[in-house]
Amino acid sequence: MPALLLLFVGSGCAALVYEIVWFQLLQLVIGSSAISLGVLLGTFMGGMCLGSLLLPRYIGSEQHPLRIYAYLELGIGALALLILFGMPVLSSAYTSLGTTGIVGLVLRGLAAAICLLPPTLLMGATLPAISRWVKSTPEGMSWLGFFYGGNIAGGVLGCLLAGFYLLRVYDMAIATYVAVLMNIAVAVIALTLARATIYEQDFDTTKRTKGPADPGTHGPTPGAWAVYTAIGLSGFTALGSEVLWTRTLSLLFGATTYTFSLILAVFLFGLGIGSSIGSAMAGRVQRPRLALGWCQMLLCAAMAWTAYMLTQSLPYWPINPYISTNPWFNFQLDLVRCLWAVLPGAILWGASFPLALASVATGGKDPARLVGGVYAANTLGAIGGAVGGSLLLTIWLGTQKSQQMMIVVSAISALLTLDAALVESDSKKRRFQLAGTLLLAAAMAGAVLLAKTVHGVPPILVAYGRYAATRVGESDIIYMGEGWNASVAVSRLSNGVLNYHNAGKVQASSEPQDMRLQRMLGHLTTLIPKNPANALVIGCGAGVTAGAVSIDPAVTKLTIAEIEPLVPNVVSKYFSEHNFSVVSNPKTHIHIDDARHFLMTTSEKFDAITSDPLDPWVKGAAMLYSREFFETVKKRLNPGGVVTLFVQLYESNTEAVKSEVATFLEAFPNGMIFGNTNNGAGYDMVLLGQVEPTVINLDEIQAKLSRPEYAPMARSFSEIGMNSVVDLFSTFAGNQPQLQPWLADATINKDRNLKLQYLAGLGVHLYQSDVIYAGMIRYAGYPQGTFTGSDGMLTALQQAMQQQHGR
Questions:
Q1: Whether residue 183 has pLDDT greater than 70
Q2: What gap in Å lies between CA 33 and CA 500, rounded to an integer?
Q3: What's the pLDDT score for residue 444?
Q4: Which of 125, 542, 714, 735 has its CA 20 to 30 A from that of 293?
Q5: Which range, of 137-151, 231-245, 442-456, 625-639, averages the lowest pLDDT?
Q6: Domain 510-804 belongs to what topology?
Q7: Helix H segments across 361-483?
Q8: Is 217 a residue whose pLDDT tops 60?
Q9: 449 Cβ partners below 8 Å, 6+ apart?
């Protein structure tokens, strides 16, 4: 048995590495919106559910369980390699057919099913396969709880190994190879043990007794329906709560890839502890159904505890992440806070599974069918919780009411199981049934009262995230809303400045330095190309960049690709004065989808594309900064078209900025950088690229801005302190030939590694924009051949540029 525990540790470790890698690979294909993530979660767990049900029906019990287990592990490894090398083919096929609406949703589901169903079927079959090695008694089933706990312990290791090391240092291919080696090692050990041990079947597969005392190998255990329902509801509350808690914790810790790995590891850690405790109890308690019922009832209190911690306590702990420049200190702090909030509920959910196994176990039954049924019920509920939590509950009910509902559902699960435990008691104990009923009613009332203690997510947490405790009373939160993909807030400072918040931070504002960047980003996109008739804006944000694009009279059609449906309406209401009412502009078309998926599946081409995505440390955002994504952008540009990209210098580090710049300039060798400084120090930048060599005629652009129809653009420039083209283009901060020495050690961000999100995640609490920009600008100089015009204009530009560069 100890050897089998080690096998399950290795199997669980490989499975979590695969899960992280496959989700990352498939998001590159079908997108990273909430719909896509819901499809991925549902397909992944659906495959495991089917596998647990199908194995005992199609694999004979005469086969050695260890041998079957080994073959399943080898199959998982083989399919993992097939997914890794077959993904480009799937991506090509999907993008050629990809579309929106119901057809698009079906195609996303089909793509996910092709990749995920085969290996997850095998993953789901592993526990039922090995279950035939133990007796189908409560004591025997308790061993399976330990196996389940070992599998989860391996999952914790796999989650941390992939999230903090393999994908940060190497790439998805290396991570896959490591997991495949684990599968092979587990299979070899299992086959060796199978040769060294004799398997004797502990049950009669031909037995079909229909009497109430012995329902036979395949018949249901009396009252088992209540256990199956309860463990299904337990899976629903577990995964539904995990989705809701992860969303809140990502605001509190910062939505980096490290945060998601840490939260998942803590949740799995709690499940493993609980499974071990539940397994120890299952082999000793006489009435496991009673223990299962009270475990579900205690979950009501545990969920109320977590809700209180996440909304009323942790956001106000006197913590300022900016104090430390070492990211690992913040990871330690986040780990402690996550354990404090999440562990109680996770332990109880983990304990529920072995107790449910013991509740349906009777001698003489096929253990694989017992385990498969309980596992399938739990996973089916988990699918409902995960998909419902990601797609429906937050939108329909909001986080507060969703968590209240979870508490009530857990109470219902407890009542079902406790009632079944009372019914199965002997006649002498039934004399206490009235007292038991009153106790159940009191427990239900207590659960309802606990649900009423749950508060909503505090607006200041949505606005300022990990800095919430340091920003109390700083601004007036005038709007807060929860959307499919993100929670959004709008705040107003005492001086009247408006802030747009997403991902727990200020993403745009009416501050002068932010307005200058957003206007520069939009105007540079349309001023350079000869005829920017059709423009695309990636990421709506506060709409200021899109608004700057929209007021160019040459733009006849403007498409805004925004992943969160909530955003356009919010910024239309609060930022219309600053974004020229772009959302209601007749030339504007809002497309709700993540921009990568939109560009991969559209056949439309554009004259101007500007990208203003979320910070690269936000999980998933690095997909919009990869070499392959920039190649996709190039394919969607008309001849002479221009693409611009926002690059932040604050809340970042030199390695991440170098990666962004080097990756962009590798795709656009003719590209250049324009800097936006604040009080003379670096703040953020605009990267501009064309397929063709960029030549900017200063006199032509100045003449264009002097025409009456361009008066709104000229006025927009003057509002940010730029009164001539010299003011605009003197912000030039380098091109590829000039910055080559600075970029010599840069990491190119590619789809197969997405290193940027790991580099940027280590700098999320740093404010070194002045140092980063100063290190880069010392390589910059006047770019010969880029600017043309009259001698006087060129001389003025050179002088202004030297001043900007501090020379």
A1: yes
A2: 20
A3: 82
A4: 125
A5: 137-151
A6: Rossmann fold (3.40.50)
A7: 367-388, 394-396, 398-423, 433-452, 459-464
A8: no
A9: none
